[in-house]
Structure formats: structure tokens, C-alpha cells
Records
---
Amino acid sequence: MLVLLLATRVFAYDFAWGFGGSAYQTEGAWNVGGKEPGVFDTWYHTNFPNAANADVTTDQYHRYKDDLKLLPTFGATLYRFSVSWPRVMKGCSGEVNPEGIAFYSDMIDEIIKNGAVPFLTMYHWDLPQACFEQYRGWASDQIIPDFVKYADALFTAFGDGRVNYWLTINEAESGCKFGFQQGRLAPGLKNDTYQATIDCVKRNHLIHGAVVNLARSKYDATRKGWKFGFPSNVEWNEGPDAVSAEKRNLAYAAWYHDPLVFGDFQQDTISAFIDNKENLDAAGRAPPSFTDTEKASMKGTVDFIAMNYYSTAGIPVSQEDVPSGAGCPAYCWQHVWGQGARKMANWYYKRYNMDIIVTELGYAGVNEADMTLDQVVNDPNRLKFWQSHATALAQALEEDQVPVKGMLMWSLLDNFEWGYYDQKFGAVHVVGLGTSGGTLERVVKNSTRWLADYYRQKKYKNPFAVGKLPSFDE
Ligand code: GBH
């Protein structure tokens, strides 16, 4: 007992936290600074001119300097943002747009000035419209060389020691399914079968491998200590039937990471994937096979598991930390159970034996349109979400000894949730967001102050020091 007490006093766990966001959801300035249209710009302007869009959203393009000053006030030291491909490249893969590069270059400097480590997402769904018009974007293999050329431009511009953490593609399956199979999101391509999503995710895997190989060969990524991740949308599947739940974990989480860790799908993943009872979307299809060259290009190309986690499936509502259902509109898809995040991290560590960074974790809850500013800022459900998740992640780290090195709250600001402004994930409320004449003033939510205090008291040791190479492998 005494030994244990002493041990906890002298030994600090490695952990840091911060916030995330993405270009289309937060920047606005859709046609400013030489930016060309992305598929979401065209989708809303042309197909849904009366729907909400992100032409302005939080206006972070003009306000990032002030927004980033919030980070040190919370003691947050990680910041994830995405580069808008159509802001930095002309056409699909033409010359770079120097104004776009300058914008992100300055943003990166500001992140570092505010004591945070930049996590750069290369692609968070805002494909240049030009790539879609030329060859239907993700529906064609032609995207592979074009993406690699774009990534090359990012390495050249930002790989000078300022950016060491690279997230290639956000949530491959979501982006493929919504935009290129179901047609629910831009560019709205419809395909009757999930096979289109499976094929598209394969292109994502191959691109990830190609981009990391480029980094290693042309930019000496290993010596520089660059770290690569592939942020994956997962939910924890809990009972009631443990065998089925495990198959669902395999069919999603291992679908993403098996090829990038092992070079190919493992047999248990393949079995889980084709079992249509457990994976209704895949409906009996096998995951794609890879050539030997492709396997070699993907194997060992992630340096950590990038986990986007929001929800647990298969637990009774009575066990949820914030009950879903009551007062929650149809889009409230989150089943809040902090222990699910802990179990997901344990599952990943057991399967891959790698460090884990939670690249998204967040809570939107009820439709804030019906709430007063005071209710938004003091939302008790949001506080419960963060209490249960911060505690659960601390248990994963301290009790289970799972190396969860970091957590990026989704998101710093309320923003455009791809189709509407009703669901608000922000640590910081944005006044009048999505309304004409909104002041867009930033107001910190109380749950964020609670979380900041929680981590201050933890006194974890930050493994991501600015200006130093990442310390993972030491
Ligand atoms: C992430 O997607 C995205 O990376 C991010 O851009 C987004 O803002 C964030 O999560 C919050 O959603 O309405 O019942 O059909 C997470 C994966 C996929 C989860 C779509 C919600 C909609 C379920 N998301 N899903 S439903």
C-alpha cells in the first residue's frame, strides 16, 4: 500500500489534451484568398441554395489568432486542424496557391506561439470540386496520385519542424459512405451497394501508405520523428451478446487499422466482415484483397492509433451516463457511456500494442436552438459527458496501463455539423452561429472549465513538447 502511494506520487503518466476542428466546418471565407470551390461549396450553393451552409460558419479564417489564445487559458497543449485542399491547390492537383499556404503557415505559428503542438489533418472531406468533375473523386483510382501530390505540397510547406503530427484522412468510411455511396453529403454520389464504400476505403488505405512512404523517402520522416495517424470512426460495441459485439468491433476498428499495422486484414477481421449478420452494411461482402506490393506499402505506416470515439452501441439506456432519448431530436445518435471509451482504448492496445491518441471525443446533446445562452453554457448533460469520459480515460491510463497519450476534444468551437447548426460540439459556444447577423462572439462553456481543472489537478507529464521531437519511442 505504502509502495503504491509513493509510486503514484513520483510517477507521472504521459498525457496531454487539446482541441480539434476541421476546415469546412469552421473556416468560412469559402472564396477568399484564392480558394477554389470544394465539393461542399458546390453542393450547398447549387443543389441546396436554401439550406444552411458553411460560407461563414465560425469565421475562424479571420478569427484564428484570438481563438488560439484560448488554448493556454485551459492549459491545453494540442491543437488539431485540417487543411482545405481547395484552399492550397489550384484545380485538383495543379500549382499551390501561395495565399492558402501562407494562411496555414501563420496559423501553425500561432498554435505554437500559444504553447500547443499542431496536429495537421490533410483531408477532412472537403475535396476540390475540380477532382470531382475530372474523375468523380473518390470513385476513381486517379485520386491516388493527386492526393500524394497535395500531401507533398504540405510536407514542403509545413514539414520544417513545425508540424510533426500528420493525420492523413479523417474517417475514411464516413467520408466514403456519405459522399460517394449514400449521397447524403457532398458531392452526393449515389451507389446502390456498400461495395462502393468498401472500394473507396481501400483507396484511402493505399493513399495513406503512399503518403507515408513519400514522407520517409523524400523527407526523411523517420529521422525527423514525424508521426502518422489515420483517424478512425469507431464506437464501442458492448453486449448483449459478447461474440456479436466483438465481431462488430473487428468489422469496423480492425477494418481501418489491420492493413496499416500488419499490411493486411487478419483472418478474424475477414470473418467478422463477411458475416452479414454482424455487419449489415457489408452484407456478406469480403473486405478487399491487396497485392503483395500494396501490402508492403501499407504495413507499419501508422505510428499511433488515432481514435475518433463518440458512442457505445448495445447498452441499455438505463446504464448510459446521459440517457439518450428524452428531449433529444432524431439526430441525437450518441449513447453516452464513458466506460466505452476506456474499453475501446483497451481493445486497440491489446490488438495493436501501440500508443493511442484520441483524435476526436465530444458531445453535442440536445438542440441548443431551444436553449437560452445560460442553459447552453451550463448544460448539465455536457458536464456529465465530460466527467464520465475524462474519468474513464484516466482509468485506462492509470489503472489499465494503456498508453493513451492524448485527447483532442471535438471541437474547440461550435461549428457547422455538415448539414445543420443544431448539433453543437464546441468547448466554446459561438453566439448566433448560423444565423444572419450573429455576432459570433465566443463564450466558454462551463463543462470546459471543469475539464481544464480536472487535467490541471492530474499534473500529467506532457509527452508532446513544442519544438522537440515527439518522445513516444524513448
Ligand atoms: C465526426 O464524425 C467527424 O469527423 C466530424 O467532422 C464531426 O463534426 C463529428 O464527428 C461529430 O459528428 O445522424 O444518426 O445518421 C463522426 C461520425 C458519422 C457520427 C455520422 C454521426 C450520423 C449518425 N459521425 N453520424 S445519424
---
Amino acid sequence: PFLAPATRPWSTRRAAVPTPPGGARHARLMAWVRTIATLTEPDEVVWVDGSATQRQGLLDQMVRSGTLVALDPVLRPGSYLARSHPDDVARVEDRTFICSVDPQDAGPTNNWRDPSVMRAELEGVFAGSMRGRTMYVVPFSMGPLGGPISQIGVQVTDSPYVVVSMTTMTRAGTGVLDLLGTDGRFVPAVHSVGMPLVDADGDRRTDVPWPCHPTKYIAHFPESREIWSFGSGYGGNALLGKKCFALRIASVMARDEGWLAEHMLVLRVTSPEGRPFHVVAAFPSACGKTNLAMLQPTVPGWTVETIGDDIAWLRPGGPGTDGRLRAINPEAGFFGVAPGTGPATNPAAIATLTHDVIFTNVALTDDGDVWWEGLTDEPPAHLTDWRGESWTPGCGRPAAHPNSRFTVAAEQCPTIADSWDSPEGVPVDAILFGGRRATNVPLVLQARDWAHGVFLGATVASEQTAAAEGPVGVLRRDPFAMLPFCGYNMADHWAHWLRLGDTLSGRGVPLPAVFGVNWFRKGADGRYLWPGFGENSRVLVWALRQVEAAATGGSATGGSAALAVESPLGLLPAPGALDLGGLGLTEEDAAALFAIDPAAWVEECGQTEEFFARFGERLPTELAEQLAGLRDRLGAR
Ligand code: GTP
Ligand code: SPV
Ligand code: MN
């Protein structure tokens, strides 16, 4: 039916909304689905039940239509390659909108649009946008079904690629409808690739492997908690449970309800003594979250288990708990960066990707498997590149797109923790903030207290990556790694963090320790100074020894005096406290990893002041005080 010619012009057709499995219990949900179907005019409406049969049917259909290439069933069982349109390969930040009533509520770092103006524009754009296609309805849960931190959404989409991706990345299907009952709350999310197959005259056009539209809209209505996405099939633009819901909309819910929705990985680290710690870490897109989440520690006796690789929802524990901040991974799969992922850098990811994976924009080998830069040291002699063109080594083009990705179920990961889907979440011991910084920022430092930790988060800057459209390598401010993902005024987000700290302290509940990290510092010759990847465990071990020391009555700064020394930026590892042995680092390199150049930092303070000034009166006074304190410690006042 996907490519069959129309028997009647679109205008005489009105898609009937079938009864969902289990019955049409939720009147508001049914009415909304009917409204969207009336607006977008699909041929057919299909409920996604979450079954393996339905998923396989969609995969087979996409192989027939050319959207997917089935990989070799022996080399890569159950796996497929999608090649996107060459202009639909990353998030489109300049087409991402926060449509709050008051522009101040979106803040200076978001693209604000008036909600009524945007609604009118979207109505025009979505009118008839699904003609000739099937509209799928995907009920999904972010977080374990029915969990105290979980939330429900329903996405409609005309993309089968989005449907199968959503069924991997979220808990999707009929169980969610059961949970919604007759009047449960859900976030409505509308998605269309924006390429109807029947035009206004009723003429049908043939489909293309990756339909999309040159003009994209990724629109969020924080007050009514709705998402409307048009024109793209790519991950963060189209899998609306992910960045649109679990960060932009959820951050607004969290502000209003006293919790946090953050761009963070979650991991469980166990010391040789058997003590478990839980760490969350916020790094900007393509700056190492998936890799740290799957880290294979090189420090003997320590183990690391994966809980989440991209998004964390954090909430103070309820009655019956110790009240500490607890984290869940609201997702059910990984949408990870392929390039750079290899047996030496991320063996756990390589083991995760042996079967049942959807790859997007990687290269295809002649024997029907996949390849990308960094998978092996030497590329195969011949490949089909991400655009579908013949590729040989030395041809001057990358074989895989720099933002090519894999979509895979979390439970396939060999390092996944037993507690990864615990509905109550795990207690958070440490929070890391980091970015991609060639200069200035030391390998690791610890915040002096919670407010200083919020300052570290608010002042993250990072060199831009291929995860979003735009120039790669340019240094930009990316507070809390949330610049493209905070659904409200970023300064209010900082105030919310400060307030949450006050609330927990007021209850006598211990706060997580906060650290800043940078795996990406370079020497004058352009080499990374730090080996990174598994060796990042050395940094975790130092940080968690600090946490441990604080818990057993260490110094007031939150750790043991023997492990850390004061610096203008925060606490640095004391000489010898972070083991650098056996890495082959020269003394100069080891010193350069932790070097603090006061002049460069005074300049950085000036940039922070300019950045903070953009928020006017919304900037929390605590952060202005933190900046003043840093300048004092640098001797710059
Ligand atoms: P998103 O999914 O976009 O949010 O990215 P992410 O933060 O999960 O980043 P990911 O772990 O996928 O890493 C992105 C790129 O950085 C990959 O090419 C990695 O190989 C590389 N990378 C990750 N960790 C390190 C590290 O410790 N050192 C160095 N040099 N590169 C790293
Ligand atoms: C990111 O860009 O931070 C990602 C990929 O994790 S996307 O889902 O496209 O946002
Ligand atoms: Mn991300």
C-alpha cells in the first residue's frame, strides 16, 4: 500500500482512526489522534503495539521501499543500514523553537516564537502533509512503565524509520495505553517528514528512500507541553521522546515540579572494597557520554556498569528513602555516535552492536557489513560510503558521516547494570561537567561547594561537534551541556539548581559532589595530552575517593586534604593522588594537563561576564558572586 497509486484524490479521503488494541478508552487521546489525522490527511492510521511482529513488518517494508539495506544476516543479524538525505544528518538548532507566551521564559539562548503565530504557521505546514502515507500512533513511556519518575508521551509520525527507532529508544506499545487508562496525562508529539505522496490535485508521486523537507520546524510549546516536528527524519529532530520531550519539555515540567531533566549519562562504579557509587555526567553532544557510560576501567579492582548514556531525570527520593537525589535513564536504547567507536576505545559498544542494530549514515562493506572511521585502524579496500557512492581509501572523503549513529536496545549492552531500569532510580554520589577544550581547562577539578558546582555547570564551554548543523570546532558556551536542550530560560535553570541544593541541604540530605573534567586538552603540537577512554577511570577513582573521604568526615571542602589541593579554579588532585603511572606521559605533558594560566583565566572570566550579562536580572546573584570569587582567587581584582 505504501507505493500503490491512489484510487481517489486525497481531498475525498478522510482516514478512519481505528480502535486501538484494548479499546478506545481514552477519549482525549482518541480526539487528538482524529484531529491530527484530519489535519494531515494520511491514507491510513495504525496503532503501534510494540510487538516484534509489527516491528519486523515495518523493517521488511522499509527494505522493499529502499529506506533500509538489510545487513548480512550472519555478520550482523537483525541489523539494517539507513542512508539519510545528505541534508538531514543532524539536529537543526536554528530551526528549533521554544514557543512560550513570554519570550523571557524562553530566554536569550533559545529561538523564541509567539505560540499563536507558530500554531498558525504549523497548521499550514502540516495541512495534508501525510497524504498518501500511513500515520502511526506510538504510545511511549520515558522511564519504566508506571515508575514514580516516569512520564508518558504519544507520538504520531508518518515515518516507519521513526517508529522502529522509537520502539528501541523508548518503552513503546499497548502497555502504555493500559497505563494511560481513561484519562491519564500524556505529552502529545506530532511528527511528519513533510513530503506528502499525493499533491493537491490528487496526483501521486513516487516515494524516495529518505523523505524530508528543506524547511524544518522543531517546535515546543512548554506551557501546553506539546511538540510539533516537521521536515526531518533524523534522530534528535524526529524521535520526539528524546531531546524534545525528555529534555526540552521535561525540563519545564521539572522546573515546575522540583526535579531535573538533564543531558547526562548515568553510571555505577564499584570500588575494590565493594562500595557502589553512582555518577552522572553532563558533556555536550559528541563529547564522550556514551564512551564514559560504557567505560572499561584500567584501574585494577574497580568495575563500571552502564545505566544511561545521554539523558538523566533526577528527583529527590520520596518517603521511605534517605531523600537523596536519585537518577533514572528515561530511555530504553542508545542512539550513539559511530565514528571513533572501536574495540580499543569502546569495546562494550562494539559488543552491544553485534546484532539487532539500525545504523544510520555509516559505510557499507562489500560483504554486507558496516564500517566507520575508527572501527578498525585500516579501512577495507572498498566500501559504499554513507551517500551510497563507491569509496576507496585515500579518496579524500570520510566513508561514514561524522554524525553517523547506531540505534540499539540498552539491554544488549554487556556492561548494563542490573539496576539500570529500577523505577526509583539510583542515588547520585557525584556530578561531572565537561566539554571539549583544547586549552585552559584542567583534566579534573572539584567544586568547592554546591553553588560553585552550579557555576562550573553554568560556565561549560565546548568546541562544536558534528551532532548539530553548524561550524565544527568553534568554541561556544554550552551551560550544563543543555544549550540546545533547555526548554526555558537558562538563567532560571541555574536558579532551579541552586534552589534544589538549598532544599536538600535544608532537609539535612547530603548533596552530590560536583567535578569539572576535560578529556580533550591538547599540547602545542595538537596532540591530545590525555589518553582518555578507559583511562578516564583514573579520574573517576580520584573523584570517588574524594566522595568517600567526605562521607567519612574529611575536610570541609568535601574531601580529604591529602587527596586534593586548593587552586583558583577549585580543588585539584594533590601531587600523586591521581595515578598517572604507566601512561608514558612526559613530565611536561603531565604538568600541562593540570596547568592553570592565570592570564588566560582572567580573559575567560571576561567572557563569562559577557555571557552572564545576556541574562540580565534573571542571573542568580550567587553566580555573579561565584565569578567575583574566581577573579579574587586569580588575583584579578
Ligand atoms: P551524543 O550522543 O551526541 O550526546 O554524544 P556523546 O556525548 O555520547 O559522545 P560519544 O561518547 O559518542 O563520543 C563522541 C566522540 O568523542 C567519539 O568519536 C568518541 O570516540 C570521542 N571520545 C569519547 N571519549 C573520548 C575521550 O576520552 N578522549 C578522546 N580523545 N575522545 C573521546
Ligand atoms: C545529541 O546530539 O546530543 C544526541 C543525538 O544525543 S540527537 O538524538 O540527535 O540529539
Ligand atoms: Mn546527546
